[in-house]
Amino acid sequence: MELLTTNNVWMMICTALVFFMHLGFAFLEIGLTRQKNTINILFKNIFIITIGLLLYALVGFNLMYPGFADGSTGIFGFAGFGITAPLTEAGVLDLAYNEGYTYWTDFLFQGMFAATAATIVSGAVAERMKILPFMIFTILYVGLVYPIAGSWKWGGGFLQTLETPFYDFAGSTLVHSVGGWAALVAVFLLGSRIGKFKNGKAQAIPGHNIPLATAGVLILWLGWFGFNGGSVLSADPSLTSLTLVTTCLAAAAGGVVAALVSTIMYKNLDLTMFLNGILGGLVGITAGADQMSPMDGILIGGIAGTIIVFAVSLIDKLRLDDPVGAIAVHLVCGIWGTLAVGIFGNLASVDQFLSQLIGVGSYAIFCVITSFIIIYTLKKTMGIRVSEKEEIEGLDAHEHGMNAYPDFRLNEH
């Protein structure tokens, strides 16, 4: 009975830590954008977590864990609306549900992950997307696209049944790239903010509160203890503690290397690059955190830190405007982390690397097509971009009729 309790309590703590990440995302996004759009970003973040949990209860959980029948294609299944816990013959909650944690705990832990995918998109489209189409996109993406994609691996679908199963421990691809692909499509269809590109050159649009952005990153790092630590799906002491060590070292290496590389390239000590390097390291280790040695974790994080600097530069060169660096962090480092499972650690092999490529490609095709259909349809029907006047004066005033800092003079620039 003791093991049962420990596992369940650990999973509950991890659920709380992943929930706390939503505050980290909110702080990071408002910190790296302008004062006049703060309410808008906070509103979106609160909407994502609230609607995300409701949708996951109504349809998402049973889309993601449909219990694929033997011989099915493993692409789509649905176990019915709502959530109902398995009961014993005596009519009480079946505590042998899974490794000593309950059905309810499992639902809540997975539900916290579901909302994260849309949060990634929120940062990328900040300061110029109308709120109603964003809300519609969130409902469709979190309600349908994310759980179907998740079922392919975590729900026992076709990627899990490959000869060498695709491996994604805590979601470098299943969470971060799923959000990252949609962010890429959304930024492409939206266009850049006014003033971001002048004469073909990217102009910095500074965030209004870098201390808050820094707090956001540290909160996200703390939350990742639950994100990766909880993905062990038990309180197994050796696996849990190793996972936390590789996660932490990858974050540290990602930050240090990104700071070094950006300083060498741009001759200034850029705090935002340091912060995104930490996040890149975290995203990079997430696919294989339980399979890596501490040194592997440092290498994977360090390479992610290097990738971040070049990815941010590439995204600017492609004239894609991503205010918070979400595409570089979640998509590019998510792909890197997923492929790294085939290069480093216990699973490293050519066969594993090929399976990782199949997984990355499958999610790329599915997420790009679905997000494009959703966002392009919204663009053609109701429009997705605010007017020039609304963008210049700020979304807080026009979409919400509120000001995040009413006691301070609004800086228009």
Description:
It is a single chain. With 413 residues, the protein is mainly alpha-helical. It is 65% helix and 1% strand. It has 13 helices and two strands. It has a two-stranded antiparallel sheet with strand order 1-2. Helix 7 (237-266) runs antiparallel to helix 8 (271-285) and helix 10 (326-340) packs antiparallel against helix 11 (350-381). The chain is globular.
Mean pLDDT: 92
Q: How many H/I helices? A: 13
What string, H for helix and E for strand, traces the elements in order?
HHHHHEEHHHHHHHH
Rg (C-alpha, Å) = 21 Å
Percentage of helical residues?
Answer: 55-70%
**Sheet with the most strands?**
2 strands, antiparallel
The secondary-structure class comes to mainly alpha
Q: Could you outline the blueprint of secondary structure elements for this entry?
A:
Elements: H1 2-31, H2 38-64, H3 103-124, H4 131-151, H5 172-190, E1 197-198, E2 201-202, H6 210-229, H7 237-266, H8 271-285, H9 294-317, H10 326-340, H11 350-381, H12 388-393, H13 395-400
Antiparallel strand pairs: 1-2
Helix pairs in contact: 1-2, 1-3, 1-6, 2-3, 2-4, 3-4, 3-5, 4-11, 5-10, 5-11, 6-7, 6-8, 7-8, 7-9, 8-9, 8-10, 9-10, 10-11
